[in-house]
Design brief:
Strand order of the largest sheet: 3-2-1-4-5-6-7
Strand content: 5-15%
Helix content: 40-55%
Shape: globular
Radius of gyration: 23 Å
Number of domains: 3
CATH topology of the largest domain: Rossmann fold
Largest sheet: 7 strands, parallel
CATH class of the largest domain: Alpha Beta
């Protein structure tokens, strides 16, 4: 029986790889109910891990969260248990009913998975002619987060700092090579243990280590941060919430994302800048400009975000907007190329009564920058809004209406639009969201003027002032280091 169970597990994995997630899910459910108990005691975490992958391919965030939580509960190996729990924590941010108190509680549960880990002995401040800052990332590739952390790796002050970059991946692209040329030293450290990576960082005598991963990529960077590889440790940019690790001194944020009292939701201290982000458009973005709007073209709304973000509340609101504007159409474009997601999302929207005859669902595309030209107004989902997608839309001449949000990770759109100088696009409630979208659409001449001026306005805003943002961050680095030296001196 044990051999049959293993064969069934492999078969389900193959179904999943061939894009047959629904069949794989049914097979895995049968395996959970009918498999040999000894097999399940040993391998149920693998079953739940695959179920989580099935829910991912069906764009079902709630199912994926439950599956990864169960995988973490049943896994026998601490390293992969942490990885499952990081996936679970990441997916929780898609769910509108999860409060900031629950999120904090669950992140602290993650920290408990390190209860038997022993960090490296404390390393006191070391005196270098220039402060040494290290950046640790799951990989250093052209991706959404890179549009925000590029200034850290390319615009740093050579007179006062040395910058080291550590990638847990051996993969590279044109962005990687640009970073490699800009930093003091670029280290690829794939396929070695967290402790070995931490020792490697210590050998470089890094003064401040900045985690660019958080719980993204299965929390790959966090075991290194738990080792306390540097005297001062920070996190932010690559993740949108507390890591749960008190070994990290501070989390990079701003007063919009983290207003007074937000400290209760973080295991780390808070490092507030005037803006948490500076957006750097890619070369490809700069080459694509907004075209004049075609006369007589129906108003086109859009949402170019991961379909996992499109929960029942968001989809219901989109339907309400379409019913309020009977001539408008809506384009929803995923960030993946999984056809099943289109089918699953269409079924959910039909069940909610969304007028699907005016909705177009699309897979992710390499030509998405040109496709921004089709969109008149972008609709930001919640409670997990767009980050780079929001900033990109604005740069491509598309206004974005966002929901203010009531927790750190749900306020990204609010922070970005504030830095861009467009607070009028921030809604405080679902009713207000519908009103702001309809108001924009009702004044077509004003909307066209806004579209035509958005890139220029963005270039003059705080959001694109990457050099100014970097100087502010470096002042904070120096302040933190002075405080560390003073503490060590006492």
């Amino acid at each position: 029986m044990r051999g049959e169970d293993e064969t069934a597990l492999r078969a389900a994995r193959q179904m999943l790889l061939r894009g047959r997630a629904r069949e794989a899910f049914e097979s895995l459910k049968e395996l959970l109910h009918g498999a040999d108990q000894e097999f399940l005691a040993r391998e149920s975490w693998r079953v739940h891990e695959l179920i989580g992958a099935c829910f991912h391919d069906m764009a079902d965030a709630e199912g994926a969260a439950q599956a990864y939580f169960r995988a973490a509960q049943s896994d026998r190996y601490l390293r992969s248990q942490r990885e499952h729990f990081s996936n679970y924590l990441f997916i929780l941010h898609y769910l509108p009913e999860i409060s900031h108190e629950v999120l904090m509680e669950q992140h602290l549960v993650y920290h408990s998975l390190y209860r038997d880990a022993e960090p490296l002995p404390p390393c006191g401040p070391r005196r270098h002619r220039k402060l040494r800052v290290g950046y640790l990332a799951p990989d250093v590739l052209e991706q959404a987060a890179a549009r925000f952390y590029e200034p850290m790796l390319t615009l740093w002050d050579r007179s006062a700092f040395e910058v080291f970059c550590y990638s847990l991946s051996g993969r590279s692209d044109a962005f990687t090579e640009r970073v490699r040329e800009a930093v003091t030293a670029y280290r690829e450290v794939p396929e070695i243990s967290a402790g070995e990576v931490a020792e490697f960082i210590r050998q470089d005598e890094i003064d401040i280590l900045f985690d660019l991963g958080g719980h993204s990529a299965g929390g790959a960077t966090l075991p290194v941060m738990n080792c306390c590889a540097a005297p001062v440790q920070l996190s932010g940019i690559g993740y949108f919430d507390t890591t749960g690790l008190s070994e990290i001194d501070a989390f990079l944020t701003d007063g919009i994302l983290a207003p007074a009292g937000a400290e209760r939701d973080f295991a780390e201290g808070l490092l507030r800048l005037s803006s948490a982000f500076a957006f750097v458009p890619s070369d490809a973005m700069r080459k694509v400009e907004r075209l004049p709007r075609e006369k007589g073209k129906p108003l086109t709304l859009g949402c170019f975000n991961n379909f996992m973000k499109l929960n029942r509340e968001v989809l219901g609101c989109f339907g309400e907007i379409l019913r309020a504007m009977p001539e408008a159409r809506l384009i929803l474009q995923d960030t993946t190329r999984i056809p099943l997601r289109l089918e699953c999302l269409s079924e959910r929207m039909e069940a909610l009564g969304v007028p699907m005859e005016r909705v177009e669902l699309r897979l992710g595309s390499d030509d998405y920058l040109e496709e921004y030209r089709e969109i008149d107004i972008m609709l930001d989902p919640w409670p997990y809004p767009g980050g780079a997608m929001t900033a990109t839309a604005l740069y491509m001449g598309v206004p974005v209406v966002t929901m203010a949000g009531d927790r750190h990770g749900s306020r990204f759109g609010m922070s970005l639009l504030t830095a861009a100088g467009m607070p009028q696009l921030i809604a405080e409630s679902r009713q207000d969201y519908v009103y702001r979208v309809c108001s924009l659409a009702a004044k077509m001449r004003d909307l066209e003027d806004l579209q035509g001026s958005l890139r220029r306005r963005l270039e003059e805003s705080r959001l694109l002032d990457a050099k100014g943002w970097m100087r502010e961050l470096e002042r904070e680095y120096l302040r933190l280091w002075r405080e560390k030296e003073q503490y060590a001196g006492n």
